[in-house]
Design brief:
single chain
Length: 322
């Protein structure tokens, strides 16, 4: 399903070039146990797109050839791919850092109770979605009962050592704003999260990443249905900060979809925008040489302003302090 974004044929966004490739972000499929309102992937329980073992093998070959430092796994719920543990085990054996973008609730679902321990055993960094520290707000965005399930998962991870002082097991949380708002200042919000979660639930974590919502897929539909699309795009454009261009994630990251096709970023993947280095063809991970990427242009459109507005937004949160 093609997503929508304002002026997808325009190029108002400044031109940017790739740096050395360091991170491979792989979408293992759109299957998910949740259907969050802010999801730019439009993932959910009824989606059937899941990366095959054959494609996973091709990903592993590319990781070795390109000397990838970090494998960033996303979805849907990446853990729902039947080959998730195989891919993680192989990548870790290669000395690659692995990130699991986890919705937390999956760790409490029947059949996945072992997953938290598996992640700890393989020292996988967890970047977990918790769009607010208040129950009503989380359940509004993600579905009734998801906040309590998320707390249970966080407590399970804490018991395994995740987020604890002196531990190498990294647990980072992700905040997404509601409505047509940019994220608040990240460090101040992190302190609020930490104080609240510790005092109310005894939960600890390492860092908070404050991410802007991109106007594509399910969030784009929300904006359109509420006649807010133009207003939100104007908010992003009017808050563009040129200095954020140096650190946007697409400069050192390559995105791979569940079929193995590659894009400049996860958002471009959802819009099926071609890789800037190879705009004439639909590039596949099996035939791609990383040497073709360095210094090449990145495909940009107006949705890219979501990454440069205000404090900036990337897969690891704000790009600068406000």
């Amino acid at each position: 399903m093609r997503a929508t974004a304002l002026n997808t044929g325009d190029k108002d966004f400044p031109a940017i070039l790739r740096k050395n490739l360091e991170i491979l972000q792989v979408n293992l499929g759109y299957l998910c146990n949740l259907s969050c309102t802010h999801c730019h992937v439009n993932a959910g329980p009824k989606r059937t797109e899941v990366m095959s073992l054959e494609t996973i093998q091709e990903v592993l070959v590319f990781i070795e050839q390109a000397k990838i430092k970090t494998l960033d796994l996303t979805g849907g719920a990446p853990e729902m791919n039947p080959q998730f543990t195989y891919l993680v085990s192989r990548a870790r054996a290669m000395g690659v850092k692995v990130i699991d973008r986890c919705n937390l609730v999956i760790l409490e679902e029947p059949g996945y109770e072992h997953m938290a321990a598996f992640l700890a055993d393989h020292e996988v960094e967890i970047i977990a979605s918790l769009p607010c520290y208040l129950e009503d707000n989380v359940d509004k965005q993600r579905g009734k009962g998801t906040f309590q399930a998320s707390l249970a998962a966080l407590q399970r991870l804490n018991a395994l050592g995740y987020g604890q002082p002196g531990s190498d097991l990294q647990l980072n949380l992700v905040f997404n704003p509601q409505g047509i708002n940019l994220p608040p200042e990240q460090s101040a919000l992190e302190k609020t999260y930490k104080d609240y979660l510790l005092s109310h639930y005894g939960i600890v974590f390492n860092r908070l990443f404050a991410l802007a919502n991109l106007p594509i897929q399910r969030f784009a539909k929300y904006l359109t249905n509420n006649n807010l699309f133009e207003e939100y795009m104007q908010l992003l454009k009017s808050n563009h900060q040129a200095e954020n261009l140096e650190q946007v994630m697409c400069r050192n990251t390559l995105s791979v979809d569940w079929q193995g096709y590659v894009y400049d970023c996860d958002f471009n993947q959802m819009l099926t925008l071609p890789l800037g280095a190879l705009p004439e063809s639909k590039a596949h991970i099996s035939g791609l040489s990383s040497s073709l990427l360095n210094g090449q242009p990145i495909t940009v459109r107006d949705h890219c302003f979501g990454c440069t507005a205000g404090q900036g937004s990337s897969c690891t949160g704000a790009l600068k302090a406000l």
